[in-house]
Design brief:
This protein is mainly beta. It has five helices and 20 strands. The strands form four sheets. A 14-stranded antiparallel β-barrel has the order 2-3-4-5-6-10-11-14-15-16-17-18-19-20. A two-stranded antiparallel ribbon has the order 1-7.
């Protein structure tokens, strides 16, 4: 596609209103990755060191609809799968699929990534019981962007005689997609249980995505996807004072940050499991963490329901920025997770997958329990 056609594309009119402008700027500027509110349901998207974190085979589906009241709503869907056995093996594996749509289908981004993690247990002194965990992960992926030109109107489609729009355009490009690009990421996370009367678990992590700055090519022009950096620090504690964990009295307090191309966000979260099946929480997202200013984004209300092996997560972002709730109608997010217990890479006697005395903790070692390593709700 030559420069004349490129200029025509930049002057096009799109049916999706304001998001057509966002699309055109996206062709010549850098984009940002979506930020999920249900981070606890989408760990693979947060950090590749979570690959295989469930030990058993698991599948998680997340769907985010951002600014539901604005034309050209942003929709992001992810599908993640994990398998591993960190108590018997030092390896974990994950698969992450992303599908992101902008501007009523105008700009479509798809990607697939494989993840692998390596894990080191921290043992108690003079004991074989586990007290902590350090994991490192790598991500190798491929991505591509598409534009639906049928939803765009070019200048040569306008007829000054009929003052209408013709069906075909000679300026529509032959190739509606970008190049297929390689996308790399890496991360590290840790977890440590303190020896106190009330169990306290500290979890933390750092990760980087697009570390190779992949080139996305449209119109023979390269646009480089800038790296995204994330961090999280969470404290998970129980109100039960007998040294044992009771999920119905488990609290989680922490902060999660996301940085990319000059954009930043910090999310403060407090959550609690109110019963064996229900958890509730509230988050506050803003641009600056310690500075008091007007750069506020959203109040987030989230809850989840767990029935046997299935977990359902629901969240709503109430917009408190200058965009206004009455203009955006907020953001809705849905998450589904299913764990196939006892389907893992552990091998016990007879070559079959191992099973611990705790039915929900396959291949678990003594001491550091599974619900410490993979908290149910609002925890990392």
């Amino acid at each position: 596609m030559d420069n004349v056609k490129l200029l025509e594309v930049l002057r096009l009119y799109a049916k999706s209103g304001i998001f057509s402008l966002c699309l055109m700027f996206g062709l010549v500027a850098y984009g940002q990755d979506p930020v999920f509110s249900q981070y606890y349901m989408n760990q693979n998207y947060l950090n590749p060191a979570f690959a295989g974190y469930t030990n058993d085979l698991s599948a998680t589906l997340n769907s985010r609809i951002q600014y539901m009241g604005v034309p050209g709503v942003l929709t992001t869907n992810t599908l993640a799968a994990n398998i591993g056995c960190k108590d018997k093996s030092v390896m974990g594996f994950g698969l992450l699929l992303n599908d992101h749509v902008e501007g009523e289908g105008l700009l479509h981004t798809v990607s697939v990534a494989g993840q692998v993690s390596a894990n080191i247990e921290l043992k108690k002194r003079h004991s074989n019981k586990r007290q902590g965990l350090i994991s490192g992960g790598l991500q190798f992926g491929l991505g591509q962007k598409f534009i639906d030109w049928d939803k765009l109107t070019f200048s040569d489609q306008y007829s000054p005689y009929t003052q209408g729009i013709q069906n075909e355009s000679f300026l529509s490009p032959n190739n509606p997609s970008s190049n297929i690009y390689l996308d790399l990421g890496a991360g590290i996370r840790g977890m440590y249980q303190f020896e106190t009367r009330n169990p306290i678990v500290l979890s933390y992590g750092l990760s980087s995505f697009h570390i190779n700055k992949p080139a996305q090519t449209f119109f023979n022009t390269k646009v480089y996807l800038q790296p995204r950096y994330t961090y999280f620090v969470f404290t998970n504690f129980s109100g039960q004072g007998n040294g044992r964990v009771n999920s119905r009295k488990y609290w989680s307090v922490g902060v999660l940050g996301d940085f990319q191309q000059g954009m930043r966000s910090h999310t403060l979260t407090v959550s609690k499991e109110t019963s064996q099946y229900i958890g509730v929480g509230m988050s506050f997202r803003r641009q600056n963490f310690l500075i008091i200013d007007k750069n506020m984004d959203a109040l987030i209300f989230h809850t989840n329901f767990q029935i046997n092996d299935l977990t359902l997560g629901i969240s709503y972002d109430w917009t408190i920025s200058t965009l206004g709730e009455e203009k955006t109608f907020g953001t809705f997010e849905l998450g589904l997770k299913y764990v196939f217990y006892n389907k893992n890479l552990c091998k016990g006697k007879g070559g079959k997958a191992g099973r611990s005395k705790n039915a929900n903790v396959p291949c678990a070692s003594k001491g550091f329990k599974h619900n410490h390593e993979v908290p149910k709700f609002g925890m990392l």
